[in-house]
Write a structure and sequence with these properties.
Blueprint lengths: L3 E5 L4 H12 L3 E6 L2 H14 L4 E5 L8 H12 L4 E4 L14 H29 L2 E6 L12 H20 L5 E8 L2 E2 L13 E2 H14 L3 E4 L1 H13 L2 H4 L7
Parallel strand pairs: 1-2, 1-4, 2-3, 4-5, 5-6, 6-9, 7-8
Length: 249
């Protein structure tokens, strides 16, 4: 019997690449995202890559009432869910106090509230079937807030702490809790960034993540090197070294 995986935010970026990676591994793949047209196109590609079964589901995680039904559809189709990947997210460059609260709110609703809602509804499903794995995609940004990424950093840091709490609560249950914190993965979300240190192709990032998921790791940076070294340094770096230089008049 094929293993099954449910991936949110699967119509682009890391989610799309992860779906392709698990299709190559022969999984049943449920792909959930807002853009139905992209999901349908991706579904055909996943079948050609070797997915046992593919289920595209239109889902906006900010509309949290739709999450239980999406998970139920996947369970009906596949019989069970082995892995739930909480990946849906947005990221904007947002200077603080510049009248962009609509995008701040969108970031928090998607990257934090939507992610937590997916887990809150997903955990009972995994418990009912006797176990499974929850995977959250956070970010190196959960380590330290950086200029213009306040809302994104806050959302990912909040999700990081939530995952720590979840891991402690289910420690004695057959539930694996995995957190993957990518550095710069080459996707549309960050291609406009002025600086992307240690960036890697999205296909490479997805392959690394898939191996980590199958190994059921608890927490890993992606890729491990150099971010396992950089993250602790980033935590203690003086703020003045992160602050953007004032523009000359």
């Amino acid at each position: 019997m094929s293993r099954s995986i449910f991936i949110t935010g699967a119509s682009a970026g890391i989610g799309e690449a992860l779906a392709a990676e698990f299709a190559r591994r022969g999984y049943d793949v449920a792909i959930a995202a807002r853009r139905t047209d992209r999901l349908e196109a991706l579904a055909g590609r996943l079948r050609s890559l070797g997915a046992a079964r593919v289920l595209p589901i239109t889902l906006d995680v900010t509309e949290t009432d739709g999450i239980p039904g999406a998970l139920e559809r996947a369970v009906r189709e596949f019989g069970r869910l082995d892995v739930l990947v909480v990946n849906a997210g947005v990221g904007y460059s947002l200077p603080v106090g510049r009248g962009r609260f609509d995008k701040v709110q969108r970031t928090l609703q998607t990257d934090l509230t939507g992610a937590i809602a997916t887990i809150e509804y997903g955990l009972p499903v995994l418990r009912a079937q006797g176990g499974g794995q929850i995977v959250a995609i956070t970010s190196i940004a959960s380590t330290r807030g950086t200029p213009f990424m306040g809302a994104y950093s806050a959302a990912k840091a909040g999700l990081h702490r939530y995952m720590q709490s979840l891991r402690a609560e289910v420690w004695h249950e057959p539930i694996t809790v995995t957190e993957l914190a990518p550095g710069y993965i080459d996707t549309d979300m960050n291609r406009g960034a002025p600086n992307r240190p240690f960036v890697i192709p999205v296909e490479k990032g997805a392959a690394i993540m898939a191996r980590m998921i199958e190994r059921k790791v608890r927490h890993r940076y992606v890729p491990v090197w150099p971010w396992a070294f950089v993250a602790p340094v980033l935590r203690i770096l003086p703020t003045r070294l992160l602050a953007p230089r004032p523009k000359r008049k």
